[in-house]
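User: What would this chain look like folded?
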Amino acid sequence: MAGQEGLIPIMILKAQLLKINKVINRHWRDWAGVVYLFICLVDFFIAPLVWNIKMEEHCNDKERYPTGVECKVTRWVPLTLGAGAMFHLSFGAILGATAWKKKEELDTHHNRDDTTS
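Assistant: Here's the prediction, encoded as structure tokens.
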């Protein structure tokens, strides 16, 4: 019995890790979609807005650009569109394939429940 006091915290930790793994396994598709949505929101809406505001402040700085000096600023280029938009193609493949697989899993789950009742 003296050696089992150390096993109890290990067993509790193992049970908690199994719960965490089950949650991750069950919801990773949803989280991947949210991450992709957030990245697109930042890259196509928030970053260009902040970039334009900062560039306007930069060009209106009279010490750097006195009257007559042209301020050459660039436009925001979405970072995720580099390399032929491989980022979007990859996320589209991952989310598309897993959504298709999820539908099959749900159909299998529902069919199994229907036959047992």
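The chain has two helices and no strands. If you want, I can go into more detail on any region.
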